[in-house]
Amino acid sequence: TLWNSATASAGRLLLGQGAAGSIQAFAAVSGSELWAHNDFLEFLVTGGVGLLFLHLLTVGWLVAPGPRLLHDPRSSAKVRDVGELVFVIGLAYIVMAIFNGMAFYLSASLAMAMLVGLARGMAVSPGATFLDATNSVNPADKVSSAC
Description:
This protein is mostly helical. Helices cover 69% and strands 0% of the residues. The chain has eight helices and no strands. α5 (65-71) packs antiparallel against α6 (77-99) and α5 (65-71) runs parallel beside α7 (106-123). It is elongated and about 60 Å long. The model has no long low-confidence stretch (mean pLDDT 74).
């Protein structure tokens, strides 16, 4: 199996097999040149335990703002909704990484990065985000009052 190929020696397990390592390992096992279709396994085969650990830290970093926004009593209901959305998207990323290998799809990564950036900014300023504003001004009101 691919797992046996990845863990065949301590060197392979610790340092990985390098670029395209999973394709070569999968070809040795099955005879067809495919990648792992699982980001966690892909990173383990390619870069070893170190790269897998860095990937797990990144996934934790992606998901972390969600629970913080959800459970901060200073956050408004709208901010808690964003926290819930970030948490669900983080979980969806993990599921997709396990079953499809989605980390390298640019459009999905960019959209997720923007949402995570927004959530991380909101998490460091609880109660003071644009969603918490109680006296928000509608831009259309400014235009009509100026006329």
